[in-house]
Design brief:
It contains 23 helices and 46 strands. With 1009 residues, it is α/β, with parallel strands linked by helices.
């Protein structure tokens, strides 16, 4: 990211300016079927561009943090010497009213930033503040300044009081058009007047306040857009609206109490069918059992029992325990920062460690959590709110202590608009708290280099970045962020997705603010303490969101029309940004990072309520973030999303969400996309319904050059950055429809470098190609269709999971995939229903663990086809780790039900060792099939016994007849044989889902102890 040198001076002082301006708110071969198998089937039927370049990207955001006032007075973090001195800000604001001439010329810019860096933290400079740190060589100068300040304050107080009274009378008459419609009784008249007075603060006051530099060094340059100071509330409010628990100094406590009154809460929610308000009734309490295969949980438990009983039957449980202990010790030995190894503990998540420490058990938890996520993301707005505590916990973010997200119950359009303002201001103040732990130099480093380090021109290697030392440096800096506050900021924007609120906004009157012209169309513009709001009408509006005329805009609400949105960055220049579009087929386009529900060190949300929309971007866009939070929610329509890198539900050091609830949608990206969790990132893509197409790859050459192909890194992947930091959590979920997934190297439910990734498709006949079929631009591929690590994989100390609930599905790929793991990792592929085809035939595919890992492929129901000869083959060879330490490799194919075919020659209803002791190919009938098979078996035994009896009777009669003629009878046909026990076992009954006795009642190895 380039740095605007003309603003260096101001930027140097910027971190200090932020808080004073507002309130902190194994092998078997066989040819064909045996006679028995044929008879069995009859009985069953009777009874039952290689070198393309990255697109040019404009990344010239200049750093400027904007401070905002708080709407609901959330408590500040306790930190000595860093609390904002709001009282001093009020004094300076009141004093500045004297200069009316300048205020009349620039009423919107009349604000005060009176803060500087104090001892590496953020604090306002207050001459009489004992917490202010002053260099010894400047103490005399500061002492003199204290005296002058005291005199000035004494002389100005009386005069200010008089002028303030006069100003109270003048403001409503002078600027009636800027009055903002508020909820009834939501803001006191005194507070409104105080806000108007603050808007009269002059640049002269800004100069005076910003000249008070704590270190006594050169004065900072003047800000281009001063922040707005929170207006003082009515005295009675300050005395009565006290926080229930506050351990802050008196000044900070008073600041919290000075926030405007909250919007009045209503008991009766609005019901407007146009925005599917009935959705409010769905999933108000998360219950994962309500979604997906109703027996999915039991099937996972059945798989778990098969694995554990298999280890016990072969007496290799000790080897598995050895594996677990070795993996745990590896984590423990590398949990620090300076480990002397390329493994270290940077950004290592506790949830990852919990899953990794018990890898076979882990699938039970992840399966349930994937249900929970789908229920919350696909249901009502409250579902997303209820998911946030679980997301915070898994991301090691402190939980909230204020009861969680609140949804104001509004009755009028004006109240809905006031609720929007409240969300924006709360988000702004929480964002400021999130950034308060950074020093001046750290802010500059992140602003100048963060995007360049992780998404710059040279960042085309999927598993790492060019400047790894810089990457580690940035990871360490980002660790200082108050991530809980950043999540608070993101959660403050979630209420904007309430369909009842959207319905009320849809009824806003034609004139709610000051009429202004934007690209030839009249819109309404309202000023708030957090920034301006634009309300567009029913025309086809064009919004140049980063143009000078809209640089102060933090929210756009468009009521109708086929609109065009250009750029719209959320960054340190505009740390909070929201777009709400209610109707129309809209176009969102741009090339800068941090657009379309994307952010770089900011928080943003884009909500599009309906229409067939088109989203096109380059990097860090479409529900993606770097160092912040980005959310894109599209409620309806057949939509197209196209971008390049770190997009479509991606997060690095933050939260990224893309939620599409209805329609047939197309997702197109090249790298790190579609539910990708990078270090300290939670990235998720949820598509609730429709026949969707997902594409990720086709542009950047595979970063492991020994094989051809392209990098992809997407579709439910949690990945660290090798030699930089551990991975995050990446998720892709599709609710229904016949979907197509194209992804190159490292895609579809996988983890890399101490990350966790999972994918789930709840319905439809799905195709997972395992590669992209064309190049990124739609032209013919320049690389052979080759990939590795796809469809449920883990690589390098990671965990990956792929679940599919319904449909006849296809799983493709080339090598190392479809339930495969490598290097102390775990990979699962679980298909719960349907006749499925597994077409990946290269080495180490279809339930294979390698280099000390566990690979598992589980399929339940249907007539499945397993191509190739690799199923569940466990090699004895391990080179990465000592076999005597890591326990070996564990490979499982567990297939229940149907008439299945295996390229390895394994038979149906067989229990086979594949390769080493850790290789298990287990084929069983389902419980229902077993019951049917028992009936068929009984009929077959009865029929065979009757055939034997008839044969014996016929032979006896013919012998008697021959003897009577003095002859000897010799049968010319063979006597039928009874059905053997082994044959009976092949179709014996299996236990119920929750039984742990599967090995004792079914399978050819049932007697092994």
């Amino acid at each position: 990211m380039e740095y605007d040198k003309t603003r260096k001076g101001f930027y140097g002082a910027l971190p200090g300016l932020i808080l004073a301006a507002f309130f902190s708110v194994g092998v078997v071969f066989a040819d064909g079927l045996s006679d028995f198998e044929k008879m069995l089937q009859d009985a069953i039927q009777d009874n039952a561009s290689a070198e393309q370049k990255t697109a040019a990207r404009t990344a010239s955001n200049t750093p400027a943090l904007v401070s905002k006032k708080k709407a609901d007075a959330a408590p500040l973090p306790e930190a000595a010497g860093k609390e904002p001195k709001v009282l001093e800000a009020k004094k300076v604001a009141a004093t500045a009213v004297k200069d009316k001439k300048t205020a009349e010329k620039k009423p919107e810019a009349a604000a005060l930033k009176a803060a500087e860096i104090i001892d590496g933290g953020w604090a306002t400079v207050e001459p009489n503040d004992p917490n202010t740190v002053v260099p010894d060589n400047e103490k005399e100068e500061v002492a003199e300044e204290k005296k002058e300040t005291a005199v000035e304050e004494t002389e100005e107080e009386a005069e200010t009081e008089t002028e303030t009274k006069a100003e109270v009378k003048e403001v409503p008459a002078e600027e009636p058009e800027t009055e903002e419609p508020e909820a009834a009784d939501s803001v006191s008249p005194e507070t409104k007047v105080a806000e108007k007075i603050v808007e009269k603060v002059t640049e002269k006051a800004v100069e005076k306040a910003t000249d008070k530099v704590a270190e006594g060094t050169a004065k900072p340059a003047r800000p281009e857009k001063p922040a707005v100071i929170a207006a003082p509330a009515k005295k009675e409010e300050a005395e009565t609206e006290k926080p229930e628990k506050s351990e802050k100094p008196d000044a900070a406590a008073k600041a919290d109490n000075a926030a405007p009154a909250k919007i009045a809460e209503r008991k009766t929610p609005v019901s407007v069918p146009d925005f599917d308000v009935d959705d409010e009734k769905k999933y108000t309490v998360l219950d994962a059992s309500l979604v997906g295969d109703s027996n999915g949980k039991n099937k996972v438990k059945l798989m778990y029992d098969e694995i554990i009983n298999g280890l016990r039957a072969r007496n290799i449980t000790g080897k598995y325990e050895m594996f677990k202990n070795y993996a745990r010790s590896t984590l423990k030995g590398t949990d620090g920062i300076n480990t002397g190894s390329e493994l270290d503990g940077r950004c290592r998540l506790s949830w990852y460690k919990k899953l990794y420490n018990d890898p076979i058990q882990s699938v039970i938890e992840v399966e349930e959590y994937s249900r929970e996520l789908h229920q919350g993301l696909s249901g009502s707005h409250r579902g997303l709110a209820e998911l946030m505590p679980g997301i915070r916990k898994r991301m090691d973010v402190d939980e909230r202590t204020d009861g969680g997200i609140k949804f104001p119950e509004c009755k009028t359009p004006q109240e809905a608009l006031a609720a929007v303002k409240g969300s924006l201001m709360t988000a702004a103040s929480a964002h400021a708290r999130a950034m308060s732990g950074f020093t001046q130099a750290e802010i500059k480093e992140l602003s100048d280099n963060l995007v360049q380090t992780f998404a710059g021109k040279g960042c085309v290697n999927g598993h790492t970045v060019p400047a790894r030392s810089v990457g580690r440096k940035h990871a360490d800096i980002m660790d200082k962020m108050d991530r809980a506050a950043m999540y608070d900021a993101a959660e403050a924007l979630i209420p904007l997705s309430n369909p009842a609120l959207l319905a009320l906004l849809d009824k806003l009157p034609a004139s709610v603010g000051q009429s202004v012209m934007i690209n030839g169309t009249k819109v309404q513009r309202l000023s708030t303490a957090a920034g301006d709001i634009i309300i567009g009408g029913k025309e086809n509006n064009v919004y140049d969101l980063d143009s000078p005329v809209m640089r102060d805009v933090i929210c756009v609400i468009d009521l109708d029309g086929n609109d065009t949105y250009r750029e719209g960055t959320c960054s340190l220049d505009r740390p909070v940004f929201a777009v709400i579009d209610l109707h129309g087929n809209d176009t969102y386009t741009g090339s800068k990072p941090g657009i379309q529900g994307g952010s770089v060190l900011g928080v943003s949300i884009l909500i599009d309520a309906e229409g067939d929309d088109t989203y096109s971007a380059v990097d860090l866009a479409q529900g993606s973030s770097m160092g912040g939070a980005g959310i894109l929610i599209d409620l309806a329509g057949n939509d197209k999303y196209k971008a390049l890198r770190r997009v479509q539900g991606h997060a690095l050091f933050g939260l990224g969400m893309l939620i599409d609830k209805k329609g047939t949608d197309n997702y197109h990206a090249a790298l790190w996309a579609q539910g990708f969790g990078a270090p300290h990132g939670f990235g998720v893509l949820e598509d609730a319904e429709g026949n969707d197409h997902y594409y990720c790859g086709g542009l950047y050459l595979d970063s492991y050059p020994e094989h051809p192909g392209y990098d992809g890194w997407g579709q439910g992947v949690g990945a660290g950055i090798r030699q930089v930091a551990n991975g995050g959590i990446g998720v892709i979920i599709d609710g229904s429809g016949d979907d197509v997934y194209e992804v190159d190297y490292f895609g579809q439910g996988g983890g890399y470098w101490l990350g966790v990734g999972f994918a789930r498709d709840f319905g439809g006949n799905d195709i997972r190609h395992g590669t992209t079929k064309t190049a990124y631009d739609g032209s013919k591929r320049q690389q052979q269709e080759w990939t590795r690590f796809a469809n449920g994989f883990g690589c390098h100390y990671s965990l990956g999971y792929l679940f599919d609930d319904e449909g006849n599905d296809m799983y493709g790929g080339r090598i190392m995939g479809t339930g495969m793991a490598w290097d102390l990792s775990i990979g699962y592929l679980c298909d719960f229903n349907g006749s499925d085809k597994f077409t990946a035939t290269g080495g180490m595919t279809q339930g294979v663990g390698a280099e000390g890992s566990i690979g598992i492929l589980f399929s339940y129901g249907g007539n499945d086809e397993f191509q190739g000869r690799n199923q569940a083959y466990a090699s004895n060879g391990i080179t990465y780790h000592s076999p005597s330490n890591c326990g070996g490799n564990f490979s499982f194919v567990i297939n229940y039900g149907g008439i299945d075919t295996y390229g390895s020659g394994a038979k149906n209803n067989a229990y086979v060792q594949r390769g080493a002791q850790g290789g298990f190919l287990i084929d069983r009938p389902t419980e229902a099939e077993a019951a049917g098979n028992s009936v068929a078996l009984k009929a077959m035994i009865e029929k065979r016994n009757q055939e034997i009896a008839d044969y014996d009777a016929d032979v006896a009669q013919k012998k008697e007849e021959a003897a009577a003629r003095g002859r000897r009878y010799v049968p010319r046909t063979r006597r039928p044989q009874p059905i053997t026990e082994a044959e009976q076992q092949q179709i014996g009954a299996v236990p119920s889902f929750n039984s742990a006795e599967a090995m004792k009642t079914s399978g050819t190895e049932a007697s092994v102890k």
